[in-house]
Amino acid sequence: MTYRQQQPIMFNGWPYSYGQQSLITPAAGVLPHRQLADVLEQQRVNQLEIGLKQGVTAATTTKPPTTPAIQCGLGPATMPAARSSISERLAGGVNAKKNAWPFMVLVANGLGLGQQPCSGVLISDTQVLLAAQCLERLPLFYTMLMTVSVGMHSINPFDAPMTRRVSNIVLHGQFNAATFANDIAIITLDAPVVLSRTVAPVCLPPASADPDQYVDQDAIVLGWDGKEISAALTLYL
């Protein structure tokens, strides 16, 4: 009679003898099924934690893009070589270089052809400073038709990179049309203008209660001029 020793059968890392689980140690290098599943799950959790930490680190170290600071405009540093005498009309001046005065705007009063437009300056991306006499006798209806053109060098409407409507007008409370005292007004645009190298607000002076703050100081008068008062409508800054 021959005797044959029963050999354990390996199944999923566990030794089986006649289908019954045995306490025999699993073969070297082979993990039990339950233990293997636990190891794989732990590895997956570890990878998720590493990914989350990396994502949080990247989010905290990445700086948002910075918006460049808006620089106000000063215009050319030197005075023009030719100067005209003071008069009620701007005539006989010197043509400015294109985009040399990025804060200058052209205010059309909405009355149509034959009406002299007014000059103004940007003091922010939504507000324009100008003379109150440009608006004092303007009928309310025509304020709806007013336009403000920025970045212009000539009065040619095709020369305007941007044009805005007017949403609000404020005249100085003590403006005197007879003496032109307090001849100042502020209009608010219906939408902000896009500031750039060629469109920028003017640099405002510091606040001062001294009425003679700029007495005997050199100044430049800006506006659209046809060289002569009788010149054609194509006027240049």
TrEMBL record:
Coiled coil: none annotated. Transmembrane segments: none annotated. Keywords: Disulfide bond. This is Peptidase S1 domain-containing protein. GO terms for biological process: innate immune response; proteolysis. GO terms for cellular component: extracellular space. GO terms for molecular function: serine-type endopeptidase activity. SMART domains: Tryp_SPc. InterPro entries: Peptidase_S1_PA, Peptidase_S1_PA_chymotrypsin, Trypsin_dom. Gene3D superfamilies: Trypsin-like serine proteases. Residues 90-237 form the Peptidase S1 domain.
